[in-house]
């Protein structure tokens, strides 16, 4: 498993008491698989993604990435782990307005310590994978909303993460562009062999994902698991 959440409990202060955001959540995401996490607003989806990204430490339970438990890691060690093993696609692309599409990706390579010569080639490879090789020299204002989201996804893959975490990638897109982005994520998950967890409130485009899990009142349950079905058939 590339990503393993085991018995995760997360609470937040709520006046004189604490509010439970995640209640003993367990989720395994193997490489090359896409898990969609759905649920209403306030159900705990974003909290689950934040814990998986090591941005928030849980009250109890363990997060394991590539066989390494994050329990007891320092802030610096967690930062290094994120740079090395985790790609995060935020809801808003937040691209740097002065940089071209290729430069957006190359900045990530610089942060990750990649040699500049290799970074250019990797950036062009990923832009080609998301269908934007011809737009490599364009800046964000020259790209459509769907194209900016594609750059956002390519940027998250720049340092070859084993875990890819995606937050509401279609929220600002129309139906057609949203479907195209989900298709792209599905294809890249299999091509790049990432353990991908996609948080979304939109169930419309989820026919091709490997798993669907629902979070409700902080508890998670699998609604569909095609990986288990394929394993049984094998």
TrEMBL record:
GO cellular component: plasma membrane
Domain ABC transporter: 3-234
Ranges that cross the membrane: none
Keywords: ATP-binding, Nucleotide-binding, Transport
InterPro entries the record matches: AAA+_ATPase (IPR003593), ABC_transporter-like_ATP-bd (IPR003439), ABC_transporter-like_CS (IPR017871), ABC_transpr_LolD-like (IPR015854), MacB-like_ATP-bd (IPR017911), P-loop_NTPase (IPR027417)
GO molecular function per UniProt: ATP binding; ATP hydrolysis activity; transmembrane transporter activity
Pfam families (alphabetical): ABC_tran (PF00005)
Protein name: ABC transporter-like protein
UniProt lineage: Bacteria, Bacillati, Actinomycetota, Actinomycetes, Kitasatosporales
